[in-house]
Amino acid sequence: MSLIRLFIDEDSMDHRFVRALRAREVDITTVGEIRTISFSDEAQLALATEQQRVLYTFNVGDFCQLHSLYMAEGRNHTGIIISSQEYSVGEQMRRVLKLMKAKSAEEMVNQLIFLSAYSGE
After folding, report:
1. pLDDT > 70: what percent of the chain?
2. Which residues constitute the domain of residue 98?
3. 1 in a structural domain
4. How many domains does the chain have?
């Protein structure tokens, strides 16, 4: 079972969050680093899937809709994690680490996961 590798989208690209996870040896890339900031949500999800990464976002509406479209069309993606903007950097990090302990990259395929399900406690 493989570890989850993250693809951080434009809305959730907080450098403090990225640094905190990298300090804990989480494999992350951001849309800023690969210069795809202005790409559509669908293009970002396709790129994350191509790179075998789970997309991390605050964008609930668009990515829920995109996930539903993928499932209806029989298309696959490598997973989507939706977080709340209300969480501090530390809270996001704790919840992501808890999720990563609970699920493998393979278990994330075609999953839409709300980070709220993973208490940081």
Report:
1. 98
2. 6-117
3. no
4. 1
As given in the structure block, the two tokens for residue 68 are 């539903």
Domain-located, residue 77: yes
Task: Please state, in angstroms and rounded to a whole number, the distance separating the CA atoms of residues 111 and 103.
Answer: 11
54-57 β-sheet, strand order: 28-30, 6-8, 54-57, 80-82, 112-114
H-type alpha helices, 58-102: 60-72, 89-102
Average pLDDT over residues 89-118: 96
Q: Is residue 34 part of a domain?
A: yes
Supply the pLDDT for residue 11. 78
Q: CB of 119 within 8 A of CB of 95?
A: yes
Tell how strand 80-82 and strand 28-30 pair up: unpaired
Span 39-67, pLDDT tens digits: 898 999 999 999 999 999 999 999 999 99
Structure tokens, 13: 């690209």
pLDDT number for residue 113: 97
